[in-house]
Write the structure tokens for this entry.
Amino acid sequence: MALAAVAVACESPGDASSGTTLVDPGAGRFPDALPLYDEPSTAGRAAAGGGPSGTTPAKQPTAEAGSTPRITRPDSPGAAGPTTTTRKPTTLPATPTTTALPATVPPSTTALPATVPPSTTAPPTTAPPTTAPTAPPTPGAPVAAVTALLLSNRATFGTTSQLQAEISRLGTEAWIDQQLARNSPEPAVESQLSGYRTLRASRQAVWAIAAEDNDPVFEELVHATVVRARYSQHQLFEMMAHFWMDHFNIKIDDGPWFHLHTDYQENVIRPHALGRFEDLLRATAESPAMLHYLNNAYSNANSSRGVNENYGRELLELHTLGIAPDGSHLYTEADVRGAALIMSGWSIVTDRNSPSYSDFVFRDNYHWQGPVSMLDGAFTSVGLGGKSAGDALLPYLAHHPTTARHLAHKLIRRFVTDTPPESLIASTAAVYLANDTDLRPVLRHIFLSSEFAAATGQKMRRPFELVLAAMRTLETDVPVNPLGQAAQTIRSRLNDLNHVPWTWEQPDGFADVAGPWLSSDGLLERWGFVARLANNFLTNQNNPDPIVSDLSRLVGTALTVGELMDDLRVRFGLPGLTPTQQDAMLSVLGLTESDPTSALDAARLGELASFLLSHPQYQVR
Amino acid sequence: MMLQLPNLPAATRRTASRRSFLGSAGGAVALGTVALASPRLALAAPGNPGTGDALVVVFLRGGADGLSLTPPYGYPSYRQLRPTIAIPPPDDPGGALPLTSVDNPNAVFPSGIDGVIGLHPAFAPLHQTLWQQGRLAIIPAAGLPASESRTRSHFEAERYWERGSASGSIRSGWLNRAVAAQGLTSPLPVVNKSNQNQDISDGPAKTLSVADLRNFGIDGYRSRTRARTVLDALYLGDNGSVGATGTDLLSVVDQLDALDATPDPSYPNTKLGRDLQQVAIMLRSGLGLHAAAVEFGGWDHHDGLGVPGDTQGRFHRRAAELAASLRAFTDDLDSDGALDETSILVITEFGRTINENGSGGTDHGRATTIMAMGGGIQGGVFGDDYSSVIADDPTEGDLTVLTDFRKAVAEILERRAGISIGSVFPTYAAPPTRLGLTR
């Protein structure tokens, strides 16, 4: 069926390296024909048209574009003319240019619909489920193919030509299953990080370092995130680690507690990033970082002044049940207080001289001893003494249908569109509940949905994603030294872009919709980053640890400047340039499209790449 | 729970303030036609003269505690409910700054609240100038009324305050709509002093987000001239949302880049200090700036809010930075009369619980204190329905909202900027009387 179609453009004969790296012990666990996970019969594939996935030969809507790459000139077809007749086939997979965009969006505009207010974070509140913006396609209707470009731009930190070739070779479904099977850090990348002092040290050891100076802790934490996102082949795992960092956001400024960040990332979030939500929720609830950040560690229900409601509120509002897009929520203020009472006593060791400093501890003398009833009596702590009340509340919340919808909404917003359609929310929530809160079948369902296939161009790259996508597409070398100029520069640029990991103050995490990011200041900083990256201006190239983008690697087989521009455009996932845009680039560089590629020296090549990466469409994925 | 006001001496709760208020400011007048806003002099822009005050909003993110901003020290239950964090009366160590008609003939007290609430001691820099001059208006127990939303979620409450409505159909910010309602076109009608867009400044009027003027120009390319040519070709005429943002940016980036934003040592060397200094620079730039949104975070004091007299407490440090920055900003604008053409509002998303929690902090509540200041602002303590009790409504809890914050904003928009508020607050029914906080 069309859902599984992949826009296979051309062979990738030069991709031997990826053949060796694809070997993965878990790769065979997801046979194509057999669903590994239970899917409710009313949801999932049935809604997307039914039929076995991945068995029908894919239609290849973009093959033509791939076999005769040329700069698209929408208003003067043929004006570009065949630039050569002797060119060898490119090794680059073709990119759907305008074919996959919504029909109403002109090719030269960005694909974010102009009618959606930038600050919109939710579907229209007036829309009942039956009028969700994106209805599932009627049976038999053509479904847009999931292109290798779309899939690799959404499931990873940025497409590369190798990734697109990989997807084309394996097929969409097998590639997704392979990524889902890679549900742990990639050993090869982790070994690159083995020299970091704090990443795998105990909390107490990190504290000893942080007590002297917080900086190395923070520097290693941020640069490890960058290195993993740049190099790991377990891309979906890393994307999910990032997703949960936002969902369960913490920010700790006060010096002595700063070291908890490292423990939180390495030992709380990452082990469960592609696991069961129930396990992740429990891990965060017991984590010293969260207990400190949302004050539950100090919440004494038996003091005359009472519990601290901070964690109880965010547990319900952000971590589990959530607030619906129309502002409604299942829980009441009394439930916020109830959750705070039930969780009171979940605390940490605060004695710095103790060998178990900052370990989890349950303080019965802080714990509310009376019975608590929540959610109209649906949950009660009667008969559950001490910590066992919270031990029961967390799984109850993790398996709650309202939590399922909340998580479905957020995951769809992350991977598909800023305005999740009701059809996909409902089916995704059902998959979540049917699979014991396991996130892998949930993601599989989302990526194989017709809504995903039709979502090209509907997500803006957040700044971190822009930075990583640009480095990945230029095959930029990023030194792993967390204290060197490369790491320092990237942190500084991310800071200007307002997207340094672990620096969002409020517990809701960095925004995951276009509105807040689509600012003039943000755009200026984006231009500034891609310009410096492509021109190798980010670091001093003569000093240790430079950031190097060797663009000569990208030249390939292009014979003329025009061909090379088109190759780069396709590699970057951009649509065709208008004649005005192409002429502007060529004229400022003093070139014509028929000039031989040798006319593009390194400086001009970098400049050309900086122009292309500044394209409005490059801000979108 | 409620805060009980004791029987105070008549001299403290005198009604003279109400009379003087009525006399001086013509308060409590019926809403009629929109006032004719004065032409701009100090803030005139060539080719875009505009009229009316420029609007500057400082949003305190996290939910600033109104009962610490303006401690109700005159209510005995205040100290009972906040045994460690209550601010004592003015004459005690670490005590509040007095807000009384006895001390300040320039202020008015139409709310009847005179001498029972004070100002947090960290606000001394503003108390010395704007308050004494009668140019600082304080509105306690303000918020979004329960009939519209009772939310205590940061994220919902921020959205509703910024959009001026809890209705899901209102997606833009009231500050932007206020400028759009004037139909003004200038190179720089609205500035959001942040890297990220904020709801309050988002909407139909052109808005530039400017995090730092010292670093606001096309930069990093091999040639800025060549980059400019290409960026024009890539963005101008692109009607998508990224294209539109780029088009707005390209229309004014070089003019902003040319402004001298050398740090002024009279401002605090902090982000907020720089933000306000740069707003002053842009107000005087001749680019026709009519509204600026500034944000100042770090007010979510669930623990360790701070005890009286501790100037290193979390609340005290925030409040001191706010006060010092606003003092520098208003002094700066006052130096050439620009303050007479500027109205400044300080708002937050909600107040906090009346009682302190077991961690020496407070949790999310409802009503809070907001402030307005400027040359056209009448100083005093304002509010609706104030009686002898600041009620902690049993159904709502934690400081019932007595004054819709939009009532204060609407009055400033109408009287100081000549803006008809119908399109600014579409879900808000204008009441028959004003608070009287404008001149």
User: Anything to note?
Assistant: Chain B touches chain A through 75 residues (CB under 8 Å). The two ends of chain B are 37 Å apart (CA to CA). Chain B has one domain: 3-212+261-423. The longest helix of chain B spans residues 314-334.
